[in-house]
Fold:
Amino acid sequence: MKSKKSTDMHFKVKDMDIATGGIMIVILNKKDANKLDLKSGDRILVKNSQTEVTCIMDISESNKAVPEGRIGLFEEVLDKLKIKEGHIVQINFTGKPESIKHIRDKLYGKHLSYKELLHITDDITNDRLTDIEKTYFVAASFTQGLSNEEIVGLTRAMVQTGKKIKFPGLTLDKHCIGGVPGNRTTMVVIPIIAAAGFTIPKTSSRAITSPAGTADTMECLAKVEMSERKIKSVVKKTGACMVHGGSMNLAPADDKIIEVEHPLSIDAEGQLLASVMAKKSSVNANHILIDIPMGKSTKARTPKEAKHLKKMFEMIGKRLGMNVKVIVTDGSHPIGKGIGPLLEAEDVMAVLRNDPLAPQELRKKAITLAGILLEMTGKYRKGKGAEAAKEILESGKALKKMQQIIKEQGKQNKPSLGEFSYPVRSGKTGKIKEVDNEIIAKLARLAGAPSDKGSGLYLCKNVGDSVKKGEILFTIYAENNFKSELAKKFSKFNKGYLIG
Amino acid sequence: MKSKKSTDMHFKVKDMDIATGGIMIVILNKKDANKLDLKSGDRILVKNSQTEVTCIMDISESNKAVPEGRIGLFEEVLDKLKIKEGHIVQINFTGKPESIKHIRDKLYGKHLSYKELLHITDDITNDRLTDIEKTYFVAASFTQGLSNEEIVGLTRAMVQTGKKIKFPGLTLDKHCIGGVPGNRTTMVVIPIIAAAGFTIPKTSSRAITSPAGTADTMECLAKVEMSERKIKSVVKKTGACMVHGGSMNLAPADDKIIEVEHPLSIDAEGQLLASVMAKKSSVNANHILIDIPMGKSTKARTPKEAKHLKKMFEMIGKRLGMNVKVIVTDGSHPIGKGIGPLLEAEDVMAVLRNDPLAPQELRKKAITLAGILLEMTGKYRKGKGAEAAKEILESGKALKKMQQIIKEQGKQNKPSLGEFSYPVRSGKTGKIKEVDNEIIAKLARLAGAPSDKGSGLYLCKNVGDSVKKGEILFTIYAENNFKSELAKKFSKFNKGYLIG
Structure:
């Protein structure tokens, strides 16, 4: 090293064939690392002619994993740089990003400016911050709180550092802040709105802590991962889409923040608000309906909390020039019968088919939401939206629209229902007073949802129903015995049903 | 998997030959991971007959890195399980540790009980928490604050989850909370105290954000990493030791917490207090002198902050039954001439040799501290300690004791001074009013300290000195050209000297 200049630091790529699920890792041989005085965990910049990426470096102790003069790249780095085994990359030292100073300031309670938030968001987007540093940002924002000004700033910064897609004319959108298993209204609302002739390009997330996200559920019926061009073509042809937002690079900082929120299931309000609104702003939505389910396991536990969230969403909407309407709904118990991707998709299709056995609460809620959206467009008179939505659903136009969307996105073969099933029965006779969202979600996840698409629960009874001792409350479906046993064991002590 | 039971999950070990610097990583083939429904980043338990370790799993995309039926282990995991390539390990699922609930509670501002803190500390000690989870604990403790009760509880929990070493009779100790470059008093105080016939087994840390820790500096003269048995033998023969605490497993949770504090240089007061006191309690010290340097770059910026820290240390000492004395010293500028491991070791030896060119401020401060410690034993009259310490130093007994300690720990060949040197000169004539600790530390680190032991700064001028334009303020020493250039460039704009 003594005689070498930094421009000499070229290394031949070795494909390590290891994926971390997101962290950018490279390996240097111990001798090279020593020459450059790099330690395990140090941050280096890896570049080819087109692009560069900040990576964390680990060390190969001998010549076995990575010999001298070579650099081992994990899959994420290879993908990002679009290079292969044998290519040449250059490495460079990189100090800590400046945005760490702003994160530190936030930990000390300082108010961050838009510029500072943009700086942090840009570094997150470009993987310049480690998990530890991102966690400090989330924890500081959570415990110190974000002011309205900061929340709007963070939203803008997230939009600014991501892709933006504009659709022509009026663009509608809906969002639910979650917490209620089976609450798959989106997949009913979207076809109704599109069938009414409006544009509603819906990007959804996959489940993080729940048994199914809209993207996981839709994926049982159609492809949800596609290029921007393809999405535009689907929307042009059908007026709608239901795709996974993650791959579209809309406000990508948001997804990277959520990754570090997940381990502790932190509900950082400011980040939740910015997250939702940034995604909507990135697709240039003009009219947005937000569903806030209220209940003890949701993000709005009390009317006061719900009212506060409503006010905040409206405030950000106003500041960003979007027409935002917020509806507070009953989030006290699961909606629908199926819990888990496939089982929820079946519920949705039953509602769209006007099947008399379809879950009526899901149907009613979807009609209400679609009605409000229709009224927001100004094309329907106040109080007439729900009626129009119902008509579209009952006429079969919504089902036809759904089939069209599925066809345009690319039909998928439905996964099969988990072959290991287990019925959970009531221990007593009475009326069902409560069904616990968290226990139902936990059981469905133990059974394998959302990654095992055919796993989950089918609820035979819900709040208000009467039940006899020995009657089936719900059935657990799992794709393998191990997970079936896990859920079964858990259900012995936790059914989640309060019967009075 | 469907027909297999969990007891069937045996894998043959592949040595991946990669070190992460602390994170426990294992790799499974994609097919095995799919069978077990494991995703990148999932936590699994890896076991052999003797021991088990919680690991983070990454995925091998093909058969190249890790074929089916095998498990790739990173160096840290191999070391911890004491196994090699070809051995068989068992894996098991592990849910999230329960202590995450307590961390979450702390984020929401809850007071944690000793039992809850012990739970967290135990999971940290046994690597059951990820960096993200640990970071939430640090951030929550920092922003929400720890009560006195919690700080004492955390201290006790750290001691409880680590090794304890007991030395016979009266055991003295000293500690400085840092922030002042060159402030290497420990290496003068310890030989004085031991020469006076007392037991003072000193465990020190390596530098984290500073250009040298006591362990880094001592390592220029003697071995600092050794077994507990060896340490006991050194202390028995000499009355003292100066070793690296890190390898001794005293309050190991503390070191693991510091790792995640480092990236943002967080000074979480509660954790600082618990950290210091847990190390002292682990070696069963009875009389402890704590040096709190006060200055704008230290942990006590104002007299109020210093007073508060002093009170806190005394409170914990009382609660844990230790005699703690706290002295607030001048931390406004660097002490000594050398900054960096070798250069600081030279200063220490010059003081011990009574060399007239030795830094007088370092000498005086060490005598003061040693004097207080002597008085704390009750064997010296109040006001007579410093005099006795000075006598021991001037008699050459302290030097002799130091040589004895070096010999017993194992003499090291001194590293050589960095061969790339660069003098930084004054731009004006005048009197030096301030020398900035942070800039001096930053320059020494840029030059390579502490990992390059012969790198750092030699200060020719300090606060109060007169200087002529063009005179050398300090010389930068580096072991390689790259780092020499880095420090040189930085010094063009930041000398850290205020000349009036």
